[in-house]
Specification:
Largest sheet: 6 strands, mixed
CATH architecture of the largest domain: 3-Layer(aba) Sandwich
Oligomer: single chain
Bound molecules: pyridoxal-5'-phosphate
Number of domains: 2
CATH class of the largest domain: Alpha Beta
Helix content: 40-55%
Shape: globular
CATH topology of the largest domain: Rossmann fold
């Protein structure tokens, strides 16, 4: 059974495609820290500023998933999400850059005047099939893939959020990027939904031997559901890296908070509105009500209730979504 150092080498040796320049900046956010009135030091990992295709967390996942698709000879990427999905936009952007076609299965109704990510999908040339319900997404992706295969094409299906073990490896590499930048926070806080980002961050901390806490702030699902998915992805990563189950800590180090969701996915809360305003006014940092403003609302609440002590280094991992601000 390989040790952590060997697994880390395996992670870093995985084939990847280049989608925009990494590393992303780590910005000090003193004005936001003071506006919150929190203890400790606050930094922001700017994956929103990733220069490829309006950036965001999905780009890291797609560097590895896109390489596997390319190496398997795929000519079309298929994936799914909501009408304003950041993941679908990032996948369509990756397909364009890799010279592939893209087919999106979106739950919701076709917008008459597409805005935000829906407009970008159009510009990127993605074909979109609309379905009524989230449960129809997977069977529809399979049907589209079969139809394309029957027509002689080579589709590659990417699951929701690219949240499989391979996609999560992109985030484990992101932790390596942090270490390379000489930055070791006490706590990392980010938005969490389909689990790949959080599983990758937790695994990255194990692989790069960082003790940082990783707290996922739910955009929609209950803590138990995210925990189940994170553990499953984590075990899949262990399998791929040849590690024993449990080595990456997907279960033991999992921490999440679903108390910032409010009335539901994408519905602003008083706290997310306040956090969004504070970040924009103090740092010109833009966050959306689906994911990042709710995650930032947690930083605000934890900071105000004294959970961060002087000397603590807090990293808000900004996962993107700024396109949604204009949707
Ligand atoms: C901006 C943004 N932040 C966070 C997330 C959540 O990431 P994950 O699905 O890997 O948990 C998403 C997912 O779509 C997203 O678009």
């Amino acid at each position: 059974m390989p040790n952590i150092a060997t697994a880390r080498d395996r992670l870093l040796a995985m084939p990847s495609v280049e989608l925009g320049a990494l590393p992303t900046p780590i910005d000090a956010a003193w004005r936001l820290r003071d506006a919150i009135g929190m203890g400790g030091r606050l930094f922001v990992k700017r994956d929103d500023a990733l220069p490829f295709g309006f950036g965001g967390n999905k780009v890291r996942k797609l560097t590895l998933v896109g390489a596997e698709a390319r190496d398997q000879g795929a000519d079309t990427l298929i994936t799914c999400g909501g009408v304003q999905s950041n993941h679908c936009r990032a996948t369509a952007a990756a397909a364009a850059k890799l010279g592939m076609s893209c087919h999106i299965v979106a739950n919701g109704t076709r917008p008459t005047h597409p805005t935000g990510n829906a407009r970008l999908l159009q510009l990127l040339g993605a074909e979109v099939t609309y379905v009524n319900d989230r449960t129809e997404r997977n069977p529809t992706m399979q049907r589209v893939a079969e139809e394309l295969r029957a027509a002689g094409q080579s589709p590659y299906v990417i699951p929701l959020g690219a949240s499989n073990p391979l996609g999560a490896m992109g985030f484990a590499r992101g932790v390596g990027e942090l270490v390379h930048q000489g930055f070791v926070p006490d706590v990392i806080i980010s938005a969490s939904s389909s689990g790949g980002t959080q599983a990758g961050l937790i695994a990255g901390c194990a692989l790069f031997e960082m003790k940082s806490r990783v707290i996922g702030i739910s955009a929609d699902d209950p803590v138990e559901e995210i925990g189940r998915v994170v553990a499953e992805i984590s075990e899949g990563m262990e399998d791929r890296l040849g590690l024993a189950h449990g080595t990456l800590g997907g279960r033991a180090r999992f921490e999440a908070d679903a108390s910032f969701v409010g009335e539901g996915y994408g519905v602003p809360t008083e706290a997310s509105r306040e956090a969004q305003g504070l970040a924009a006014h103090s740092e010109a940092l833009f966050t959306d009500h689906w994911y990042t403003a709710k995650a930032l609302a947690a930083v605000v609440a934890y900071g105000r209730s004294g959970q961060f002590k002087d000397g603590d280094t807090v990293l808000f991992w900004h996962t993107g979504g700024q396109v949604g601000v204009l949707a």
